[in-house]
Amino acid sequence: MLTQRGYGITSQPQKILLDSNAYFRLADNLYPLLDRTYGSSPGWKLCILGGTLHEYNYSVRLRSKFIWVENEKHIEDRQRGKIRLSEDQKTSIAGTKEFMRQTCRDEDLGCSPFDIECLAAAYELHITLVTDDIDLVELANLYEQPVMSSMELMQKMLAEQCITIDDVKSVVAMWTYDEDLPSHFHSEYVRLFGEEPEAF
Question: CA angle at residue 166 from 161 to 168, to 5 degrees?
């Protein structure tokens, strides 16, 4: 088992990594999602890996569902929010990914290769991963890797006055329209926002 190293304090904004599903769930309604600093100095920034659109590029279903992805403003937002990795970091992430893939198989978890890559990157970079994938959360817990859900991220944004509750409701309305509500949506919404979600 790999040993998780400590999370250091830095004067630079802390990075939080989104897996592809979290990016698709948030980026359109909370634009700009990546090209901004949240919270008070030094604050924190959201980022993605370069392979975030890999599945999207090869899926007609995803391209028709998330047509906003090709808008110039979102392309620019992704360019500014794409995390830059050194060769040493890429090597470390690749090695950790192999450990995690084996654990995924051993535990019979249904994590995609790119989801595991996101988890490995967050682990090696000592940053939190945003994911709504239950199996990936279980795998992260085995490695003591901090994760949060899309709704927990929005609650953090709301608490730090980076978004409004109307922004949250707009995101939820889009999830409902797309039939893409996260698992345990209702109970988590009530826990995080202290009210019943609106019916859309």
Answer: 75
Q: What is the pLDDT of residues 108-122, one digit of tens each?
A: 999 999 999 999 999
How far is residue 100 from each of residues 34, 77, 111, 178, measured CA to CA in Å?
A: 27, 30, 10, 31
Judge whether 66 and 74 are in contact, CB under 8 Å: no
What is the per-residue pLDDT across 26-38, written as a single tens digit (0 to 9) for each? 999 999 999 999 9
Kindly calculate the radius of gyration of the chain based on its CA atoms and give it in whole angstroms. 17
DSSP the chain: ---PPP----SSPEEEEEPHHHHHHHTTTT-SSSSS-BSSTT-EEEEB-TTTTHHHHT-HHHHHH-GGGGSHHHHHHHHHHBPP--HHHHHHHHHHHHHHHHHHHHTT----HHHHHHHHHHHHHT-EEE---HHHHHHHHHTT--EE-HHHHHHHHHHTTSS-HHHHHHHHHHHHHTT-PPTTHHHHHHHHHSSPPPP-
The amino acid at residue 181 is L
User: What does the alpha-carbon distance between residue 42 and residue 82 come to, in Å, rounded to a whole number?
Assistant: 19
